[in-house]
Design a protein that fits this description.
The protein is α+β, with helices and mostly antiparallel strands and 403 residues long. The protein is built from 7 helices and 18 strands. It has a 12-stranded antiparallel beta barrel.
């Protein structure tokens, strides 16, 4: 679960720079052309008058200007929350995040299921405009440190993640006349940098993505940013199996005291196996930001991912085990292995000032189906109500900084 958290947070929960352009409003009645002109003129004059008063007050009272800016921190934040905002930026940006995940098992029985994990992250982005098109090149590193007793066989607490590179064309296409919908393509590359990836034989993972976005003003209740995303990724590995191969005769298999550090049978190709490596994956999701005030945002999102793993045996291969499990299904099957997972989050984000934001949210990562009494049931996407002790759901507190 920890290895996948960064992908969701990278794509959705980022600091902000400015409110998105308001979407076109509904047309006024056709038989009131003169009234439209009169109303427009009056509204414009009134707005300009109010703005002039605000400017005069700000010029006379710097403290009032600072207070007004503090009340609308989202409009002055360094990083953007929508592609439309990001398309207006240029130059370098650096962001640091510190998240803390508290697993729900901690509240069930802290003696057995406690889970408290920190996740520091660092990212750098460069925005440039070749040929009038905005491009954002970025790199990101993240690691996890578990304060509580680790749920790993070797008791390791520290889990660095692979380096992720990305290139995005924020809102490269946008229908400003009618729908206000923008289109943002992206490409990503993963550079292996962890022992897990080296053991799996990872060369890289290439990903392609696209986002369709729409922002609109809802009057007195605030404004909304809507996003629908889709993506595909392809893993490139030196072997279809994630495991440690049997060493050759010259390899060191014992430590200085003569203790065996790697035990492998002569008939096995792999001494230890963690199953098949991912071949390719598909994902589809969406999220919404509700800008309640100039500082406060409520956000939520859902993503479904389906992974196809490398084929280790052909469909119908007679050499694979033919036994059945307790549910009457084959214990082994040929062809590509498959697995799916859903990721859901819901929370609040408060922009403290142009550089810092504080987030509080709930995050659930789990399989969409669960088997109950020999019948598959659909899980509620947020909360892990059927197995809270599993720590599939976490309460997250996050502090972000951007310059």
């Amino acid at each position: 679960m920890k290895r996948l958290l960064s992908a969701v947070l990278t794509a959705v929960i980022v600091p902000a720079i400015a409110l998105a352009d308001a979407a076109p409003t509904a047309a006024q009645p056709e038989n009131s052309e003169q009234a439209q002109q009169t109303t427009t003129t009056t509204t414009t004059t009134t707005t300009e008058s109010k703005d002039e008063k605000k400017d005069d007050k700000a010029a006379k009272d710097p403290k009032a200007a600072a207070a007004a800016q503090q009340q609308n921190a989202l409009a002055n934040a360094v990083q953007a929350r929508t592609p439309e905002e990001q398309a207006k930026q240029s130059g370098f940006q650096f962001a640091f995040g510190l998240d803390h995940y508290i697993g729900t098992g901690t509240f069930i029985n802290p003696q057995y299921y406690a889970s408290l994990t920190a996740a520091p992250s660092l990212s750098a982005t460069y925005l440039f405009h070749p040929g009038g098109v905005t491009l954002a090149a970025s790199g990101r590193v993240i690691a996890y440190y578990e304060y509580t007793l680790p749920d790993t066989p070797n008791g390791r607490r520290f889990f660095p993640q692979d380096i992720r590179l990305g290139l995005v064309a924020p809102s490269i296409l946008r229908d400003k006349a009618v729908t206000g919908i923008g289109f943002t393509p992206s490409v990503g590359l993963t550079i292996p940098a962890t022992q897990e990836s080296f053991t799996a034989g990872m060369i890289t993972t290439v990903s392609l993505g696209a986002a369709v976005t729409r922002s609109f003003n809802a009057g007195p209740i605030g404004s909304f940013d809507l996003r629908v995303t889709g993506g595909a990724s392809k893993g490139v590995y030196t072997s279809p199996v994630n495991g440690i191969r049997k060493p050759n005769a010259s390899a060191t298999t014992r430590d200085a005291l003569g203790t065996a550090v790697l035990v492998c049978r002569d008939s096995d190709v792999f001494c230890v196996s963690n199953g098949a490596n991912p071949n390719f994956a598909l994902s589809l999701g969406g999220n919404v930001n509700w800008r309640i005030t100039g500082n406060l945002i409520a956000f939520g999102g859902y993503t479904y991912s389906h992974t196809f793993r490398e084929q280790l045996a052909a469909v119908g291969d007679p050499t694979i085990p033919q036994a059945l499990d307790s549910n009457g299904n084959p214990v082994a099957q040929g062809g590509l292995g498959e697995a799916d997972v859903t990721r859901t989050f819901l929370g609040l984000s408060y922009q403290l000032n142009e550089h810092y934001n504080l987030d509080f949210y709930m995050y659930t990562e789990q399989t969409p189906l669960v088997r109950k009494d020999a019948v598959w049931a659909v899980r509620f996407p947020l909360g892990s109500f059927d197995n809270a002790a599993s720590n599939n759901t976490s309460v997250v507190v996050s502090l972000g900084a951007a310059y």
